[in-house]
Amino acid sequence: MKTITKKDLVDRIADSSTTKRIIVKKIIQTFLDEVIRELGQGNRLEFRDFGVFEIRERAARVAQNPKTLEKVQVPSKRTVKFKVGRLMKEQLGLDGHEKSKGMAASSPG
Questions:
Q1: Residue 14 is assigned to a structural domain of this protein
Q2: Distance from C-alpha of 64 to C-alpha of 90, rounded to nearest angstrom
Q3: How far apart are CA 86 and CA 99, in angstroms?
Q4: Which domain CATH number covers 83?
């Protein structure tokens, strides 16, 4: 698995459009800043067919230290949940069906 950075995405978008890298970088950073700001305000972000970001509260629980087997109290905390949208599910084969494009098995020989 390869790690793709924000710079990689900026370069790719700039290369595939007529927009300068500095403009693409600013747009992407502004978008990411807005996502963080909206989640920080407790808002839900829905991008049709892509997915939904929302803040969830994880309940307090009792866990166990695997080394000492001692019970440990874990406090409640807020976390970001992402639910995959329809188009992403289809493109990544997450709906239980493999995408047929490029998935055909070749027979040896």
A1: yes
A2: 38
A3: 13
A4: 4.10.520.10
63: left (phi over 0), alpha (psi -120 to 50) or beta: beta
| Residue 64 forms part of a structural domain | yes
CA nearest 55: which of 42, 67, 46? 42
Query: Helix, strand or coil for residue 102?
Result: coil
- pLDDT tens column, 49-90: 999 999 999 999 999 999 999 999 999 999 999 999 999 999
Q: What percent of the residues of the chain are helix, what percent strand, and what percent coil, each to the nearest 5?
A: 35, 25, 40
63: domain range? 6-92
**Residue 10 buriedness (CB in 10 A; 0-12 / 13-18 / 19+):** buried
H or E element: which one contains 83?
strand 77-84
